[in-house]
Structure formats: C-alpha cells, structure tokens
C-alpha cells in the first residue's frame, strides 16, 4: 500500500524492520515514545517517512571513550 510514493508499514513489518518484538511497539505507543502511527479502521499503519524521521531523532552522537 502506498500513498503519493510513501509506503505504509504494518506493525509486524515495522517490528521486523527494527528487529524488535511487536509487543515493544505497543509498549512504546502506550508510553507515547514510539514512531507516529495512523489508524486505518482497527489497524495501525506506520508511514515509512515518519519512521525514518523518528529514527533520526533517536540517533545518539558518537562519544570518545
């Protein structure tokens, strides 16, 4: 599924992409910490560009040890 060239990911697809359990995504949403989602009917969908932007905000700078 795509809208104007932007891909939507299912919860399972996003969990696989991030290599995390699906439950972690639900916990993040409950805490308001995860990537933004769009509700389509009963289903959550994650716009790939929004996920990429969210990941950029999570990037930590490299520190010298």
Topology diagram in text:
Elements: E1 2-3, E2 6-9, H1 11-18, H2 22-31, E3 38-40, E4 43-47, H3 48-58
Antiparallel strand pairs: 1-2, 2-4, 3-4
Characterise the protein shown here.
- The protein is an alpha+beta fold and 65 residues long.
- Helix content is 45%, strand content 22%.
- A hairpin with a 2-residue loop joins strand 3 (38-40) and strand 4 (43-47).
- Strands 1-2-4-3 form a 4-stranded antiparallel sheet.
- The radius of gyration is 13 Å and the shape is globular.
Short key terms for the protein model shown above:
65 residues; alpha+beta; 4-stranded antiparallel beta sheet; 3 helices; 4 strands; 45% helix; 22% strand; globular
Short description:
With 65 residues, this protein is α+β, with helices and mostly antiparallel strands. It contains three helices and four strands.
